Amino acid sequence: MRTGRPLLAAAALAVATTTAAYVFGPESPAASEKKTTVAAPPAAACKADARYPKRELRGVWIATTQNIDWPTKAGQSADRQKADYVKILDSAAKRNLNAVFVQVRPASDALYKSSLEPWSQYLTGTAGKDPGWDPLPFLIDEAHKRGMEFHAWFNPYRASYGDSTAALPAGHPARRHPDWTVKYGGRLYYNPGLPAVREHVTKVITDVVDRYDVDGVHFDDYFYPYPVAGAKFDDSAAFRTYGKGEKLAQWRRGNVNKLVAQVDKAVHAAKQHVKFGISPFGIWRNKAQDPTGSSTSGMSAYDSIYADARAWIKAGTVDYVLPQLYWPRGHKLADYTTLVRWWSDEVKGSDVQLYIGQGLYRVGAKDDKAWLKAGEMAAQVGVNRASKQVDGAVYFSAKNLMANPLRSMDRVSKSYYSRPALLPLNDSLGGSAPAAPGGAKADGSRLSWQPSEGARSYAVYQVPKSGKDCHTTDARNLVAVVSEPSYTAKSAGTYLVTSLDRLQHESKAVKVKVD
Fold first, then answer.
1. b/e map 224-251, b = 16+ CB within 10 Å
2. What is the pLDDT along the chain (515 residues), one digit of tens a residue?
3. N or C: which end of the chain has fewer CB within 10 A?
C-alpha cells in the first residue's frame, strides 16, 4: 500500500538577501521585500484562490491506433511525423495543458525500437517494417521541452486487429505462442488467465521504463474484450487449469488484478518516480447490480470486461485512476455529475489520485442535444473543480483538441486554464525540492539563472503591482513553466523563479526585477 497523499509544504523560510535576487519559501507566502532577513508570515495568512489551482493535471490522449491522432497517416516521412506531433504539443501548450498520454503499444506492436514486439503498422503501413528512426525519444523530449509529463500508453491484451496468427510478422509473440491467444469478434487477444501472458506484458512495459525517460505508464479501458453479441471468449482451458474452484467471473477479475499489481510492482522497482495509472470505463457497477455502485444504468465494467477499479484503489496498485466519463450532465443512464461524485467517494481517504477522462470527441454529436451546447465541456470541468478529490482532467483526443469543436476548448481555456498549473504531487513516488535557482538576473526583458541540480523545469511567477504576499500559493501569478533556465518577460515588473524536480516538487523562490 502506498504512503499517504502529500500535503503541500508550507514551512516558513528565511529571505536570502543579495543585490540581485531574494529567496522565498516554496508553496508559502512570499517574505518581505526589505533587504533584511525576516521570517515568512504564517501559512494560514495565505488563502489559495480556488479559481487558480496551484496543482492540476491537464492532459490529452494521443491515439496512434488506426492513425486516429498520430501519425496522421501511415507511411509518412519522419520529418512529417515529427512536424505533426509538434503541432499537437503546441496546441496543448497553448491551452496550458501539462501532460500527454501517447499510445506506444496499440496491439502487441511498438512505436519504438523493441526486441520484444514488431514495429507498428501505424508508422509505415506495414507491420514489422522498420521506419528508419525510433520515434519515442523524440516524442518524450518534445513533451519535456514544453514542461509536460509523458505517459506511455499501453494496451495490455490486444494482440491483433485481425484473428489470424499467420498474418502477423515473423517473430510476433502471438505467432510464436499461438496458445497465448483467443480469437474473439474477429480479433486476436492475449488470454489474461495465463501467467505467461502476464509475464510478457510486464516485460514489455518494464523494457520501456528501463530504456526511455517516460514519466508514466498508462492503461486504457480495454481488459477482457467488450462483449460481442453471439461470441464467446473461449478461455475454458485456462480456467480449468488455473481456476482453482473460483467462479469464472471472479477468476477473470482476479487475472486482471494480478496483472495490474504485477505491473505496478515492476514499474516502481525499475524507477520509483514513474507513475502507473489506468483509465477504466466510467461505470464500475450500477446500483441495480451493487448497492454501493453508482446511480446509473449503463454497462458495468466489473461485470462485462472484468475490470475492478475499486480493487485497484483499495490495494493501492495504481497511482491514479482516470475514469472515462463520456456522458453529458443530465444523461438519463449515466449522468456526468453523479459519476464524478461516485469516483470522488471511491478515492477519498486513499492516496490514489483521481483525474477525469473528458469526452471531447463527443462535442457536436447530434445524437444527444447536450453535446450541441458549446459550454457543456467547460461546465464539466466546473463539476470537477467542485470536488476536492479530482486532481485534473484528460481529453480524448488530440485531433479534437486541435479541431476545438463548437470552440468548446476556448471556453475551457478561458474559464479554467488561463494560467499554467504544476502537477499534483504524490509522496510515494519519491523526489524532493531542488535548490533554488542561482545567479538570477535580468538583461532587458530576458530573465536567466544558473541551472539547479535536480531541476527539470522552472516555474516563473509575475508579482502583481498590488499586494506583497502569497504570490506562489496558487497559480494566479504563475506565468510559465519552462524547461530551460531562461524566460522572456512580456512586461516590466517583479518576477519569482522556482526550480522543479521531475515530479514538480518546488524549491524556494528567487526574485528578479525587470525594468
1. bbeeeeeeebebeebbeeebeeeeeeeb
2. 444 333 233 322 222 222 233 343 333 333 333 222 233 334 456 889 999 999 999 999 999 999 999 999 999 999 999 999 999 999 999 999 999 999 999 999 999 999 999 999 999 999 999 999 999 999 999 999 999 999 999 999 999 999 999 999 999 999 999 999 999 999 999 999 999 999 999 999 999 999 999 999 999 999 999 999 999 999 999 999 999 999 999 999 999 999 999 999 999 999 999 999 999 999 999 999 999 999 999 999 999 999 999 999 999 999 999 999 999 999 999 999 999 999 999 999 999 999 999 999 999 999 999 999 999 999 999 999 999 999 999 999 999 999 999 999 999 999 999 999 999 999 999 999 999 999 999 999 999 999 999 999 999 999 998 766 788 999 999 999 999 999 999 999 999 999 999 999 999 999 999 99
3. C
Q: What are the Cα distances from residue 505, in Å, to 9, 46, 142, 477, 501?
A: 9, 19, 21, 18, 6
* Structural contact between residues 305 and 226, judged by C-beta atoms closer than 8 angstroms: yes
Task: Please give the distance of CA 432 from its chain centroid, rounded to a whole number.
Answer: 20
How far apart are alpha carbons 357 and 98 in whole angstroms?
15
Helix (H, G, I), strand (E, B) or coil at 487: strand
CA–CA distance from 26 to each of 114, 433, 500 (Å)? 41, 9, 10
Nearest to 287 by CA among 270, 307, 302: 302
Q: Residues 119, 109: contact at Cβ < 8 Å? A: yes
235 is written with which cell numbers? 478461455
Cα 487 to Cα 448: distance, rounded to the nearest angstrom = 6
Query: For every residue of 100-134, which 3-state class applies, written as one string?
Result: EEEEEECCCCECCCCCCCCECHHHHCCCCCCCCCC
* pTM of this structure: 0.92
Measured over the CA atoms of residue 483, residue 487, residue 489 and residue 493, the dihedral's sign is: positive
Q: At what angle do helices 195-211 and 248-270 cross, to 10 degrees?
A: 20
Q: Enter the C-alpha cell of residue 279.
A: 483509465
Could you tell me the maximum CA-CA distance found in the chain, to the nearest angstrom?
78
Cβ partners under 8 Å of residue 157, min gap 6: 189, 190, 192, 197, 201, 222, 223, 224, 225
Measure the CA–CA gap between 141 and 439, rounded to whole angstroms.
26
Give the number of C-alpha atoms closer than 13 A to the C-alpha of residue 195, restricted to the C-beta side. 3
444, burial (CB in 10 Å: exposed 0-12, middle 13-18, buried 19+): exposed
> Distance between CA atoms of 40 and 6, rounded to whole angstroms?
22
**What length does the chain have?**
515
**DSSP for residue 61:** E
- Dist. CA 152–CA 208, nearest whole Å: 8
